[in-house]
Amino acid sequence: MLKLALSVIVLFLAIWIVIPGPILPLFVLTVGGTEVWPVLTLLSAVALFVALRSRDSMRWAAVIISVAAMLCSLAPPVAYALRGPYVPLAAFLVPSGRDSGADSRPGVPVVLDIYGGAWEHGSPHSDARFDAIISSWGYRVVGLDYPHAPEARWPAQRDAILREIDALPAGRIAVIGHSSGAQLAIIAAALRRHRISGVITYESPVDLQIAYEHPSQPDVINIREILLDLCGGTPEQQPACYRTASPRYVVRSGMPPVLMIAGGRDHIASVFGERYLRDKLRNDGVSITYVELPWAEHAFEDVVTGFHDRIALWYVRQFLDRTFNRQ
After folding, report:
1. Which of 73, 107, 125, 177 could form a disulfide with 182 if both were Cys (CB 3.0 to 4.6 A apart)?
2. How many CB atoms lie within 10 A of CB 108?
3. Distance between CA atoms of 197 and 257, rounded to whole angstroms?
4. With 0-12 CB in 10 A as exposed, 13-18 as middle and 19+ as buried, what is 194?
5. Is the pTM of this model over 0.90?
6. Which residues, in sequence order, are CB contacts of 297 under 8 Å at separation 6+?
7. How does DSSP classify residue 125?
């Protein structure tokens, strides 16, 4: 029975890689399990080995469950092998940064990081580990802050970010945003396109009205409640908020180059919206690099140096070095 229990536990941890968790605690397992799939594959192999050596009556049940767990855990690498986007093997095998540390001399490119958190929580320290990696490449990283809903309604968040950008000395500036921070980043790049050299978005919301009217399933964060807190009403009651807070209506020609990173299985920021935004930017003549990670979920980069995060970081570094002519 202990061998069967081991197999069941491993399957419980791995199955959410294939079936998105319907509630937030299980959704966390979806994100985490997907990013640490090698660990779950190893645990599945151990459970299978133990089951095969067993001689009790539940042996084959344990074997079948262990195999099922292994198949679930292998979904991310299989999706990567079939669809990419491909990166050098070194991106998986070596640390994502070097030991030089950030360069604080004048003229060094500045990377502004805008945290996510559904416009309601988080702080400039939320992405500390992520920022440390960017800093280790020799960039100066500054975390931006903004007031949170529902105490502060839109456009207070946008205006706070624009004030912080305007207060910086003119120079070489890139902006990175995550989720709601990505929405703020790309809107800032559209409105301050002459001050910003490049923008990177991780899983950006694109159209808030569509998100309100057609929330993803499972809706693990209750997106309608979040948007009501942000805008103070429904799309019918606050149409200006839903429009000015939707990047699809704000992006324009003349923007700096954009790197969009999207999760192919994102159940919070629709990948279809990101594809639409990609096409709109291209039609507007904006230089766009679009990276879609087939099996990545929303907030995958929170598992710093996890499977998909290593892929994304390779593209981020290439983009920053190209933007600032450091290649």
Report:
1. 177
2. 15
3. 7
4. exposed
5. yes
6. 20, 27, 30, 31, 34, 263, 265, 266, 267
7. T
pLDDT tens digits in sequence order for the chain, 327 residues long: 788 999 999 999 999 999 999 999 999 999 999 999 999 999 999 999 999 988 887 889 999 999 999 999 999 999 999 999 999 999 998 665 554 555 666 679 999 999 999 999 999 999 999 999 999 999 999 999 999 999 999 999 999 999 999 999 888 999 999 999 999 999 999 999 999 999 999 999 999 999 999 999 999 999 999 999 999 999 999 999 999 999 999 999 999 999 999 999 999 999 999 999 999 999 999 999 999 999 999 999 999 889 999 999 999 999 999 999 986
Q: How far apart are CA 188 and CA 177, in angstroms?
A: 10
Are residues 76 and 40 in contact, defined by beta-carbon separation less than 8 angstroms? Answer: no
Contacts of 139 (CB under 8 A, 6+ apart): 102, 103, 108, 109, 110, 111, 320
- Which residues, 6+ apart, have CB-to-CB distance to 165 below 8 Å? 112, 144, 173, 175, 188, 192, 195, 196
Q: Which long-range contacts (CB under 8 A, 24 or more apart) does 303-307 make?
A: 303/31, 303/32, 303/35, 303/36, 304/129, 304/130, 304/133, 305/95, 305/96, 305/133, 306/34, 306/35, 306/36, 307/34, 307/35, 307/36, 307/37, 307/38, 307/76, 307/77, 307/80, 307/92
State the DSSP string of 165-220: HHHSPSS-EEEEEETHHHHHHHHHHHHTTTT-SEEEEES----HHHHHHS--SS-T
* DSSP code, position 306: S
Strand, coil or helix: 146:
coil
Task: Find the helix or strand (DSSP H, E) in which 248 lies.
Answer: helix 247-250
Place of tokens 């292994």: 70
Q: Which two tokens stand for residue 189?
A: 């790049």
